[in-house]
């Protein structure tokens, strides 16, 4: 039996995905979590076969939660789903060690198949993978220049978090966050957070409404 830790901050969404997953006779949702910290704790306690997790979560992002889970257990199987079908996010997920990524628009059709493939040791990126692997797409996106930690800080800044809030979320110091902010602003040739937010919107890393 495939056991699932299902992570999304909206109870209605979790309920819908639970129904989709448990229609399959070989899949059972073992536990649920509403944010990244809760997901990490639940994974540590329950050790599911796979984590099926939203990319956009309150507090630490799905990517950061995945990074922490994989640091604890390098063999963890993680499948991300997201409303954002950005090449940058897909590539970042792959770099983190996530084995699958599906868009929410196609989740109803592919979540069961993707879960089985990832648990069996495969990777599932569906049609999104071809776009993520496009050298032209990568070259056109300056956010690819950022390190994983700079990218995490970038996303939090774009969502309106302060340096102090980001430091608390990432379990680091405000000084370290400020250093990352300085580096990423220089790499992206930005002078203020307004420009940063516009860049994030342009590349589909955030939306005006979740």
TrEMBL record:
CDD domains: LuxR_C_like (cd06170), REC_NarL-like (cd17535). Gene3D superfamilies: 3.40.50.2300. Residues 3-119 form the Response regulatory domain. One of its GO terms (biological process) is regulation of DNA-templated transcription. The modification 4-aspartylphosphate is found at residue 54. Coiled coil: none annotated. It holds the Pfam family Response_reg. Keywords: DNA-binding, Phosphoprotein. GO terms for molecular function: DNA binding. SUPFAM superfamilies: C-terminal effector domain of the bipartite response regulators (SSF46894), CheY-like (SSF52172). InterPro entries: CheY-like_superfamily, NreC/VraR/RcsB-like_REC, Sig_transdc_resp-reg_C-effctor, Sig_transdc_resp-reg_receiver, Tscrpt_reg_LuxR_C, WalR-like. Residues 139-204 form the HTH luxR-type domain. PANTHER family: TWO-COMPONENT RESPONSE REGULATOR (PTHR43214:SF43). This is Regulatory protein, LuxR.
């Amino acid at each position: 039996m495939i056991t699932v830790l299902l992570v999304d901050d909206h109870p209605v969404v979790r309920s819908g995905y639970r129904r989709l997953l448990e229609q399959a006779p070989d899949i059972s949702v073992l536990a649920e979590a509403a944010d990244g910290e809760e997901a990490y704790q639940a994974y540590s306690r329950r050790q599911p076969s796979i984590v099926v997790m939203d990319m956009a979560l309150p507090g630490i992002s799905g990517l950061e939660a995945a990074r922490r889970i994989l640091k604890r257990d390098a063999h963890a199987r993680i499948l991300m789903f997201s409303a954002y079908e950005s090449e940058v996010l897909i590539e970042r997920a792959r770099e983190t060690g996530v084995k699958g990524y599906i868009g929410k628009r196609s989740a109803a059709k592919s979540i069961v198949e993707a879960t089985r493939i990832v648990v069996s040791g495969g990777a599932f990126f569906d049609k999104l993978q071809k776009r993520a692997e496009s050298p032209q797409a990568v070259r056109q996106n300056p956010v690819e220049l950022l390190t994983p930690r700079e990218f995490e800080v970038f996303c939090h800044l774009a969502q309106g978090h302060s340096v102090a809030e980001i430091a608390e979320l990432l379990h680091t110091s405000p000084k370290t966050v400020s250093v990352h902010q300085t580096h990423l602003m220089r790499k992206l040739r930005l002078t203020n957070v307004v420009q940063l937010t516009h860049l994030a919107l342009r590349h589909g890393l955030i939306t005006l409404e979740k």
